[in-house]
Amino acid sequence: MKEFWAALFFVFMAEMGDKTQLMTLAFSAKYKALTVFLGVCLATLLINLISVALGEGFGKVFPAFWVNLIAGIAFIGFGIWTLRGEHKNEEEKPQFGKHGPLMTVIIAFFLAELGDKTMLTAVAVASRYHNFLAVWMGATVGLVASNALAIVAGKAVGNRFSGKAIQVSVAVIYVLSGCLAIADTLLHRR
Predict the structure, then answer these.
(1) Are 107 and 18 in contact (CB under 8 A)?
(2) CA 167 to CA 187: how far, in whole Å?
(3) For the chain, which residues make up each domain, given as ranges?
């Protein structure tokens, strides 16, 4: 069960303030909340299926020591990435396609997540914990939950907490988690 919760936590945190969460907020301003939620759910199931499969494969090819060490370094990297922020214009609303609202959300969300921090987070968690279903479900629930937050209360949260405060908090959690993973790996090396 710890694999589920680890995936949920790290993916949820990675998505906070991310460009896809902002994109979800923009979609929810144009389309019905249920349509956006369903599109995010479907795209998330697929992107996390790919991410966890990549992470599982990586974890089977390399020894556990190196997987855990690389995962710890990756978490520190994600923390630094979070502090740096996105370089794209995050205020820009996505172009809405002609495929209908549901397909537009699915396609846009899936493509935006490819190679994104949350995808790489799911890969890192899956490479460390070898429980495909638990990590896939945890990563999916974490990503959907963070985007549901954007649909329901994104503007309210944005008005109460500065984007910088959220960004720094998430970065600190990632760096601390990475340091703890590295320390645990080095202390338990056999």
Answers:
(1) no
(2) 30
(3) 2-187
**CA separation for the pair 16, 104 (Å, rounded):** 22
Q: pLDDT digit string (tens) for 29-71?
A: 777 888 989 999 999 999 999 999 988 887 778 776 776 777 7
Which residue do the tokens 């990632």 mark?
174
Does residue 140 have a pLDDT over 50? yes
| Nearest to 131, CA basis, from 68, 71, 60 | 60
CA–CA dist 103, 153 (Å, integer): 23
DSSP the chain: -HHHHHHHHHHHHHHTT-HHHHHHHHHHHHS-HHHHHHHHHHHHHHHHHHHHHHHHHHHHHS-HHHHHHHHHHHHHHHHHHHHH--SS-TTPPPPP-SS-HHHHHHHHHHHHHTT-HHHHHHHHHHHHS--HHHHHHHHHHHHHHHHHHHHHHHHHHHHHS-HHHHHHHHHHHHHHHHHHHHHHHHHT--
Extract the tokens encoding 97. Answer: 């396609």
pTM: 0.67
Angular region, 85: left φ>0, alpha ψ -120 to 50, beta rest: left
